[in-house]
Amino acid sequence: MAKKKAENRSFLDKWEAEYLFTYVKDKPVCLVCGVNVAVSKEYNIRRHYETKHHDKYKDLDMTQRSQKVEEMKRSLVSQQNMFKKATSQSEAAVKASYIVAAEIAKSARPFNEGEFMKKCMMKVCDLVCPEKKQAFSNVSLSRNTVADRTCDLATNLYDQLMEKGKDFVAFSLAVDESCDASDTAQLSVFIRGVDSNLCVTEELLGLKSMHGTTTGKEIFEEVSKCVTEIKLPWDKLVGLTTDGAPAMCGKKSGLVGMVREKMREENCAGELTVYHCIIHQEALCAKALKMEHVMTTVTQVVNFIRAKGLNHRQFKSFLEECGSEYADVPYHTEVRWLSRGKVLNRCFELREEICQFLETKGKDTAELREQKFLCELAFLCDISSHLDALNLQLQGRGRIITDMYAAVRAFKTKLCLWENQMLQGNPCHFPCCQSIKAQISTAMFPCAQFAEKLAAEFSRRFADFDAQKCKFELLSNPFAVDVENAPTNIQMELIELQCNDTLKSKYDAVGAAQFPRFIPDTMPQLRTQAAQMLSMFGSTYLCEQLFSSMKMTKTTHRRRLTDEHLRLILRISSAQSLSPDIDELASKKRWQVSGLGTSD
């Protein structure tokens, strides 16, 4: 420090007037030419002044020099502010391009939609804020830029998922496969991971394009790549949920069998729990009613009305003339879970109008007016509505498997109640049956043993869920679990939990879904058990939702969309637990100025 002072390395205020220098960010800066001097020594500063600017300013006295210095300092600050503003505007333009690119991906729009949006923005700007036109013009939204931004956003999401995966104590996978518009098989793999704080992360792990066959071995290889690429250990995999296809659930050559074999090779101590999608199972249970003949008749009627344009137009005009509450009848689509109930209910509500319209077309409506058929139609409408309500309960993101299982158990209990009431002639929970009974006093509904048939089908198809009932109860209501029936490794901790009044009060306050986070670290086995249950997928709903987005993204008019771009777009549109770090991405990007007619 003494040496530095001895050599005059501290900038002195008098040098401003003497040598026209100022001190900016720990460096002497020439106010005339803006050059930085590396070392703050008087000799260096004086030499620069004398060799560069002495002749020009030698005739100024000290007052004039002071005035000149102040003027130059103001000019320097103005320049610095201008550069800061330009930098701020450039960062804002880059961030805006990322935000727009994310919205384009989420809305399944093509990349060149950015150019259209840019034109709209500029026209709006001309009218609303013409002074901001340059700022809007700086936002780069060309096709190539939007594609690049989409890649950056998806990569950032994947990097975040990989970082979160390091903290997972348990994770499960949901796997399903569907074909896109170009008949390429797309395998979707979702992950549901739980960290040490019992926080759940639910995201797309990978979308793999399969251009050849889709055997169990090939599906396993793609799933294995997804797990390996994100560097997750196999011993933390606790659950696998599929759509129930043979290539998925085969015990030897299917995905399930091969994953279990892989876990044995990796010497994993835990056992893999496998589920067939609970929503698929629920939809299949409805077939146990054996009432296809009613659905076939309804479908034939709807197809007659809607298959030909003339019939369809005339039917809609007929409904309008009648002053009907409804304007049309929907098509029945087998692959849509709720389509069956909607078509049945609409046809039941419009049964009289449909018969009148068919008669004007010379069609025989005797079957549609039969008492037996009307009773069967009313009963099928009501039971389908109840099944649809259950289906909706099972749908959605972030659903805990214990809640889904509870909904199924509740439905099985309701079945017994409904059957007893129907046998007693009390269809209080079946509004369509009530409507028919009010019109036909001798109405007989096909209710005999319907609950028994459905309950038996539910029990058969949900056997894999019933086998986990004890584990489900440990998550849904640990205070009511019989300790003797619990696994031996958690019995001691379970007793401590059940005897802790503070934790019981917390459970009553926050509910079963949030309570596991409050289990103390002194109960590691219970926390591990809770993490495993929280990580379980009850259905492949997320896969189905992704495929719906895929159908809107890769349409018949956009078949040339590459597999890579499809994967990137769907990663952004399906993101829920994570969001792209746009500030970080923008800070890494060089500012790009784009005109209306240019491309990056």
Automatic annotation (TrEMBL):
<dbReference type="Pfam" id="PF18658">
    <property type="entry name" value="zf-C2H2_12"/>
</dbReference>
<dbReference type="InterPro" id="IPR012337">
    <property type="entry name" value="RNaseH-like_sf"/>
</dbReference>
<protein>
    <recommendedName>
        <fullName>SPIN-DOC-like zinc-finger domain-containing protein</fullName>
    </recommendedName>
</protein>
<dbReference type="InterPro" id="IPR040647">
    <property type="entry name" value="SPIN-DOC_Znf-C2H2"/>
</dbReference>
<feature type="domain" description="SPIN-DOC-like zinc-finger">
    <location>
        <begin position="13"/>
        <end position="71"/>
    </location>
</feature>
